[in-house]
Amino acid sequence: MDTQALAAFIAIVDHRSFSEAAEALHLTQPAVSKRLASLENQISSPLIERGQRSLALTEAGQRLLPYARRILDELHNARLDLAASTGRIGGRLSVIASHHIGLHHLPAWLRRLNREFPDVALELQFMDSESAFDQLKRRTCELAFVTLNDAMDRHFDIQAQWQDPMVFIVGLTHPLASYESPVLADLAGYSALLPETNTATFRVVSRLFLTEKLTLRPQMPTNYLETIKMMTSVGLGWSVLPESMVDGSLHVLPIKHEVSRMLGAIGLQGRALSPAAGALLDIVRELH
DSSP string covering 45-105, please? Predict the structure, then answer.
């Protein structure tokens, strides 16, 4: 099978659009359509349903997709293996980082990477962890620095990980700030400022409340921890934030329950990492 045609097929599936697939591949839309048609002719079967508002895979398309991804992954691996003999660490390195990791961890890593490996051309995107999982599966990056959770796809490879201790906090003027020994039942009477329900942090807090048969009162969910910190500091509710984010604008509640999350770097199983990605991971492991 023609690998360019397979790449066009995968791009159409991932972007759910012929025009966006063409943009991603730096081709015209007719060229992408021609490559898909060529692939369908090779296997004598349509791969994508035409005439629908949203793209849908045929049965043949569903069966071909995992093979197509593995074929292109192996081609990627072969190129890296052949280039490895040079010993050079450089070239393009595409990385995704969650907003929190980007603000509080990434600068030290990238400062070191830039100093020791100036030939690495970094392409960096910031997004929430759940979106990063999806982008990594689409092969739009080599590494993603995210919050790890028990709902992660089994096809991810964890390359590095570390604990991120968290604490319950309120603003200095919030009623809970005057409690000497608050418990979860006290928090249940006030609004909670937490990330969205699909995040690891929300699930950790939600489990604690469910265990004690308490009602959680989340409001204004956002995955930007800096925004949650600001809203908490002005008294809009209580929250749970990494210890590293606590400053004089916040009061730590001495809740007996320990809360922590796991941060880490992930890649895809079966897809080799470039020397540049390996160099960055070495820096991350050393600094943690």
Answer: S--EE-SSSS-EE-HHHHHHHHHHHHHHHHHHHHHHHHHGGG----EEEEEEE-HHHHHHT
